[in-house]
Every structure is written in C-alpha cells, then in structure tokens.
Design a protein that fits this description.
By secondary structure, the protein is mostly helical. The protein has helices at residues 2-8, 10-13, 18-57, 78-85, 87-119, 126-134, 141-152, 160-163, 174-199, 203-211, 216-227, 229-244, 248-253, 266-275, 279-309, and strands spanning 59-62, 71-74. Helix 12 (229-244) packs antiparallel against helix 15 (279-309) and helix 14 (266-275) runs antiparallel to helix 15. The protein starts with a helix and ends with a helix. It is a multi-pass membrane protein. Residues 1-23 are annotated as: Disordered. One of its GO terms (cellular component) is plasma membrane. This is Carbohydrate ABC transporter membrane protein 1, CUT1 family.
C-alpha cells in the first residue's frame, strides 16, 4: 500500500494540476486583454511625446552660410542654457505662481463650501444647485474666456457703469480677471470631487455626533472637513498642475487686452516659441516646465501628507 500511495503522490508534489495551470494562463490573457488598450494609448499619446520632446530639446539647428539649408545637429544642453537665460520665461513662471497662490485657495475654498452646502440636510433643491454649480465646467475654456472678455470690455460689456470705472483688462488687473474665469469654470469640477467624498462618509458617524449634541456646523468642521482632506489635497494637486499649464484663457483674452504679452504665461511662451518656429527651444521650455510642475506637485503632496499623518 505504501508503494502504491507513493506512486500517486508525485503528480501532486510536482506542481499545480492541469486545471489550475489553465486557469492561470486564462487569467494572464484576460489581464493582457484589459491592460493592452491603456498601455498602447499611454505609450502613443503620453510616453512617446515626452521622449520626442526630450530628444528635440537636445538638438539645435545649424546652417552652412547665410542661406544654407538648415539641419538639426546634437546640441547637448544648449537649448536648456537658453531657457535659464530667458528672463521673460521665468517672469511668466513667477506670474503663474502668484496666480496659483491666490486663485487656488479661493477656488478650493468655494468648492468645499458648495460641497458642504449640497451635503447639508438644510438645503432644499439639491439637484438644481448641483447642476447650477457644475454647469460652468461644461463651457469650454476658450468660450468662457470670450464670454468674460466681452463682459470685461468697457465698450462691449452690459455692465458699462462698472467696466468704465474699473478696467479689468488693464495690466494690473488682467491676471485676476483670468483668475476669475478659471475659478468660475473649475469650482464646480472640484466641488463634485469633494462632494463625492462627502457622500462616501458613513451616516452613522453623523448620527453619533448628533447624539453627542454636535450642531451641523460642528459636524462640518470637525468631521466632514477632516474626512475629505484627501479629496481636497487631490483637487489642490490638479489645480497646481493646471495653473502652470495656463494657456487658453490668456491666449483668448489677448484679443481684448494689450496687457497680455506673447510670453505672459509659461505655456504661452512655449506656444509662441514654437510658432516662430523654434521647436527645439520650445521643447526645452516644455521639459523644464514639466519638471517644475512635477517637483512642485510632489513637494506639495509630500508636505500635505506629512501634515495629515501628524
């Protein structure tokens, strides 16, 4: 009997059964089928453009004589040296950083307030207000900039009594006019993210707080806001990235205001440089801007995560 049992045990000890092996192969094929579309699109429309931009930033154009045919040669970090010597580009970076320091907290504060109002049991007509708060996000940024450009223009605005006294398109105010457009468009988007996070909070927590005598204001301040902090951090990271990529609004408002130059924001400087055309320098601008965006977002994320964990 012992010999007979030993004859049957090696197949079990050798590894998985044929059925288990077949299931494993089927699982791997299913994973490949589901991941492949994302991987292909990621490589084609994200990784490949980044690699191409980096390669272009390392090249430069040379000519043989005044009228010689241009040819691209390896230039090393020549384009990056020009980037760091470009005062207009770094002035635009400082401009959008100032923009973000003021606009992002205001926008996220409004988004949090609207989300708390929608989650409040005292608010009536939540469906209407949810749609009303989110509706501006459905308006494309270019259309929103054109619409607000007409509202800001002293000769075209229906609020001429205000715009004739306050020139929102003047050099000292045009940055905040752009901030108003961005805030109007994206408050609803950020509100929706925070509101979804509020809906995920178990209602038992609120019931327990009310049994302890907490008011709606105390519940909002001591329970809701701390629990949706990860959502607020997420929207802040998105907003930081969007701030450094500001393009559509200033580009559109250039037809309304002479105070917006061709290098008013970093992305506008990249667009203008590429239109010359100087693709190599524009690529270097883009790479530096992408690295700055990554570093700023990473530092903010790490700082907020450390603060939340404390």
């Amino acid at each position: 009997m012992a010999t007979l049992n030993q004859a049957h045990t090696p197949s079990l000890r050798a590894g998985r059964s044929p059925r288990t092996a077949h299931t494993g192969r089927s699982t791997r094929r299913a994973v490949v089928v589901f991941v492949a579309p994302f991987a292909v699109l990621f490589l084609l429309f994200y990784a490949a453009p980044i690699i191409y931009a980096v390669i272009q930033s390392l090249l430069m154009v040379e000519r043989e004589g005044t009228f010689g045919a241009p040819q691209q040669v390896f230039g090393g970090f020549t384009q990056y040296a020009l980037v760091f010597q470009d005062s207009a580009f770094w002035a635009s970076v400082g401009r959008v950083l100032l923009f973000g320091v003021v606009q992002v907290p205001v926008m996220l504060g409004m988004a949090l307030l609207f989300a708390l109002l929608l989650d409040s049991p005292l608010l009536k007509g939540k469906r209407f207000f949810r749609l009303a708060f989110f509706a501006p996000y459905a308006v494309p940024g270019v259309i929103a900039a054109i619409m607000w450009g007409f509202l800001y223009s002293p000769s075209l605005s229906p609020f001429g009594a205000v715009t004739s006294e306050i020139n929102f398109l003047d050099g000292s105010l045009v940055l905040w006019a752009i901030a108003n457009i961005v805030t109007w468009v994206y408050v609803g988007y950020n509100m929706l993210i925070i509101y979804a996070s509020l809906l995920a909070i178990p209602t038992e927590i609120y019931e327990a707080a009310r049994l302890d005598g907490a008011s709606n204001t105390q519940i909002a301040w001591r329970i809701k806001i701390p629990l949706v902090t990860p959502a607020i951090i997420l929207t802040a990271v998105f907003s930081i990235i969007g701030t450094l990529q500001l393009l559509a609004e200033p580009q559109t408002l250039r037809s309304f205001s002479s105070a917006i130059s061709s290098t008013y924001t970093p992305n506008l400087a990249v667009y203008t440089t590429a239109s010359i055309p100087n693709y190599n320098l524009a690529a270097a601008f883009s790479v530096v801007l992408a690295l700055a965006t990554f570093i700023l977002s990473f530092v903010f994320l790490k700082a907020t995560q450390r603060k939340v964990s404390q």
